[in-house]
Amino acid sequence: MRNPPLHRYATRPGFYFTEDGGADVVVRSETADQVWLSVIESLDDPSAFYQDAIRLFDVPNVPFVDQIREFPVCMRILEDLYVRETLFRMQGPNYGLWYVHIPKAWSGMRYGFRVDGAWDPRHGVRFNPYKLLLDPYAKGIDGKMELTPAAFSYECEVVDNRVHGSAFGNMSTVDSLGHMPLSVAIDDRDKTKHDDDPDHPHIPWSKTVIYELHVKGFTAQAPWLPEEMRGTYAGLAHPTTLAYLQGLGVTSIELLPIQAKQPEVFLQERDRVNYWGYNTLGFFAPEPSYATKAAQKAGAEAVRQEVIDMVRALHEAGFEVIMDVVYNHSCEGGVEGPTVCWRGLDAISTYRRQKNNIGRLEDTTGCGNTFDFTNTHVVTFAIDSLRYWAKRIGIDGFRFDLGVSLARLNGEFTQHHPFLYALRADLLLGNLKLIMEPWDLGNLGWRTGQFAVPFAEWNDRFRDTSRQFWLTDVESGGRVGRIGMQEMATRLCGSADLFATDPGRGAASSINFVTCHDGFTLTDLTRYANKHNEANGENNNDGSNVNHSANFGTEGETDDVTIVARRERAAMNMLGTLLLSLGTPMMLAGDEFGNSQDGNNNAYCQDSPISYLKWDWLYQPEKSWHMHRLETVSKLVALRKSLDLYHQEGFFTRLTQLGLLKPSSRIQWFLPNGTTPMERDWFDLGQRSFAMQLLDASETDILIVINGVPEDRQFRLPADNAWTPAWCSAESTGHMPGHGTTVENLKLEGQQTVWTVSVPESSQIHNLVERMQQGETDGATARQLSDALDADMAAIARAEARAAAERALHRHAPAPQQAAHAVAAATGARGAHAQSSQSAQSASHSASTGASSPNAATPEPQQQSEPQHSSPVDTAAEQATTGAETDTNVWTFPALSITLMKQLS
């Protein structure tokens, strides 16, 4: 066989088609003794290498791995698999790389590597030529691993679907061909194939609203799709799917991992799968199972094209595409795991090792292994993969799973890590959206806010603050809780305490979220006090036990209309906090209409209806609570996008060149009586009602009013403007702020659908809902909500009657008695001052709120009751001093609500 000069530089592994009809193949293995390229062909087709290869035959007591060492090119036939394997001896190592040029190559060619070398598990060396290995740079993958002894490099048995054997024992001599996935070559040399691609939307960070979804789960039960498109890339690209996303108003679609995946061994032993996909098999190849059956049958190139078409369709519809990626570990797991790729190629250079036991792997990911990002070649591999997805597939950004593990030097995190510099310095990647999950399971693994420009980060402090303020604190009585005004104000203002780490880094770096794929859905946060993961098969031991959730008196679903109403109000409070805070909001798909996972907060292994979005509510002809929520969420997203106050990336408080937080004149704070909070108010955990005014010289001012107590509350709004409510979380249960002394009641019954009200009739999603509603439906859910609202309104009427009577008594009471009533009401409404457990940590963000010191003790929490829509007796102190009943600037806000007020022109 002729061996022409290589056509590629010796710096990059990969499969490169050449002009002579062949290919250059390069792979890295720094410590191997010999590497072979293995090409797999069907016996139904003539071999492309017939003239070059020496045929091998079985020889008693001579393993085939000894035979292949004799010839540069050899071929063997495996009749039981009905395939032909041709092996090319590669040249090397040259700076750790092995090379070969093959005379013929084609798109769709299946191949892999066999690698020979030392077998010394206790020193981390596990070369085994009996194992056919994937190309780490493979652009397509065909097949999947079988749970058999062939998958493991050490001798073992699989008995009753369980693996038995020692990873430090003898080397396995079972050939893995036929039991493991194969690499697939894809020819993408055509430089003009992307010339007609739509322009990338390039949404500014300040205008970004992220929507996290699972490609399969989002459309697996979508009634508007034909069966063959459900759960696929093509289903997500369908016009009706895109119309739904446009109707919601989000800007950027974040996809759970779509790189090829493989279930962990312990899941395979239990006949389960890794549904989420955070266990990567191939970092260049898309996951085949999300493609249509037709594309899967056509092969890896058709699967890849379906992914490209999906991205194009999303771009044409105006959406960015952000991809969740997992470069912290591989699917091979710990040393007991299978040998699929990296372990067989060069385990020493690929994975981090324990300092005192090199035979064992360092694990900061909880998945058995951690890629060694102190190795330049591991960094290069990750950058090459990311560039491929951005340039060839069209991805607009990446969210890095367990980002702290990617930035550890000598075991410790540093924002100056070479990988982070490589990302930000790359001309392509440095201009994309780069989002870090700022924690891992290693030493000092919580690093929220510690990645520098240009990285954004998931803000878990925002998540926990929102949940505690609106759920667990309310469940404990709603008077005094763990979260007070100072902590809430800091999160509303963009979390400057965490993200104002250097001049130039803005609030958009904070990815605010209340829910994500990992944990309860928004609806389940309000239905379940405890996780219910029994279906996962791990005795409910998996998943987090700290959820800051509340069930409002009953675990799970209920027909109790009062509980249903309280839950819906709580859900809308959290969504309102999310979308009215400075920073970049991220929503979990399905939260906008109340999707539930039945209390499962770790559905990573549930490729089942538990994880799939449930669209049956679309069939209901009357407006159900699902539709009410969808309408209010889409309205809130539209309001956020319409306000220029949110279209800037700086904090309302700025970081000076001296590193000090500088308060801004663009924000003002008010207590319900219209006064500015005093120092003691910021740390008073009983102060749960306040207003935040955002000022803008060029547009309408807005006011965000939070009433965190379980009674309607009067607020004296700033007198420099006339105000009108633009959105309120209480809309979903039939209430709006009222101008004067009572809240306004809404009539929600009788409306047709959410979309006939808020979406033009010409919209595709309008037509979708109408089509869905032509079927038969059970109106029980709609009736339940209607009953809940009727009951709520009846309670309001009764409360108002009581309030009128009390006011009449007060008007005839002696002045000292009136004062006593006022003092009693004020004390009951506010509670005593209390010191925040986080006050010591909060000094850095006190400047954003004007706070500087904490106060004293906390009273016993009171038993929570349902939100009371009553007269403003609880604000009698304010009425006594401000004349609230006649003041045109007094508004009454519903109990436990968040409201957006706009200045009247």
TrEMBL record:
Q: The Glycosyl hydrolase family 13 catalytic domain covers which part of the protein? A: 212-640
Write the signal peptide boundaries: none
Q: Say yes or no: keyword Hydrolase present.
A: yes
Q: Does the keyword Oxidoreductase apply?
A: no
Keywords from the named record: Glycosidase, Hydrolase
| InterPro entries the UniProt entry points to | GH, GH13_cat_dom, GlgX_Isoamylase_N_E_set, Glyco_hydro_b, Glycogen_debranch_GlgX, Ig-like_fold, Ig_E-set
EC? Answer: 3.2.1.68
Enumerate the Gene Ontology biological process terms: glycogen catabolic process
GO molecular-function term, one example from the UniProt record: isoamylase activity
Composition bias of kind Low complexity appears in 536-551, 814-886
Ranges for region Disordered: 532-553, 805-886
Family to which the UniProt record says this protein belongs: Belongs to the glycosyl hydrolase 13 family.
Q: What is this protein called?
A: Glycogen debranching protein GlgX
* Source species: Bifidobacterium stellenboschense
